[in-house]
């Protein structure tokens, strides 16, 4: 595994993303016909910095296409209680981006599923996940945010978009992934044992200092792009940008 985390000063997505990804070794992961899945954080239809901006996705797609002829897809399963993923794609500009760049959009909330088991997982010894996440190289595109339940949300927690509402809704709230929030840090750890990102590009251009769905923005803006193949290492580095000690974040420690 390539363990380097590259922290790049942000000037613009077209200028900053390619250098960050290249220095972090993305070319070593991409085979000539490798299909690639981009997983932004589109928890609801709030604009950036709550969600991943389409401009970051576009810059990543342009880099990926330098190294592979494989199909590129953008995939997410939103958590909003009242909206479906296609509505979120449309409202945040992903539908128009997909048409312009000729990429498919996948709703992970309704995609065909596969059952996996792992008795070493304390919280999730059984899990249902979309089949497609195992057939693509998975690039996580989170945004830098504090979180109200697990202190920090980054690349590892971004994988929560993979879990289907048919199996993980209800019990602890009205949103689509509510049941997953029970013992959340351990759930994140177990989920990443089943399917962790192969590469991460984190948008730390602004940063949310208090709360993952809004609240205070970092002042001044963090103004960084982070890239790396080890999601936990990227998240640990990113937590420091919010002034957090990563050893105090359950799923990072």
TrEMBL record:
Pfam family, one: DUF362
InterPro entries, alphabetized: DUF362 (IPR007160)
Domain DUF362: 36-238
Domain of life: Bacteria
Designated name of the protein: DUF362 domain-containing protein
Source species of the chain: Desulfosarcina alkanivorans
């Amino acid at each position: 595994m390539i363990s380097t985390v590259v922290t790049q000063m942000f000037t613009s997505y077209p200028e900053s993303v390619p250098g960050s990804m290249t220095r972090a070794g993305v070319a070593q992961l991409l085979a000539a016909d490798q299909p690639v899945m981009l997983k932004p954080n589109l928890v609801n239809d709030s604009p950036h910095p709550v969600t991943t901006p389409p401009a970051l996705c576009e810059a990543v797609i342009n880099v990926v296409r330098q190294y592979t002829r494989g199909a590129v897809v953008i995939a997410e399963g939103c958590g909003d209680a009242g909206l479906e993923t296609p509505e979120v794609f449309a409202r945040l500009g992903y539908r128009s981006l997909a048409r312009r760049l000729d990429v498919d959009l996948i709703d992970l909330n309704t995609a065909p599923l596969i059952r996996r088991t792992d008795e070493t997982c304390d919280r999730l010894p059984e899990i249902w996940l979309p089949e497609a996440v195992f057939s693509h190289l998975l690039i996580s595109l989170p945004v830098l945010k504090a979180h109200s339940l697990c202190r920090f949300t980054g690349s590892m927690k971004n994988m929560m978009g993979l879990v289907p509402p048919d199996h993980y809704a209800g019990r602890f709230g009205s949103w689509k992934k509510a049941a997953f929030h029970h013992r959340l840090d351990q759930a994140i750890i177990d989920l990443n044992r089943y399917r962790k990102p192969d590469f991460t590009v984190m948008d730390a251009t602004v940063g949310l200092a208090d709360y993952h769905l809004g609240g205070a923005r970092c002042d001044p803006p963090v103004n960084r792009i982070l890239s790396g193949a080890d999601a936990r290492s990227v998240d640990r580095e990113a937590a420091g940008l919010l002034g957090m000690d990563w050893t105090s974040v359950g799923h990072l420690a």
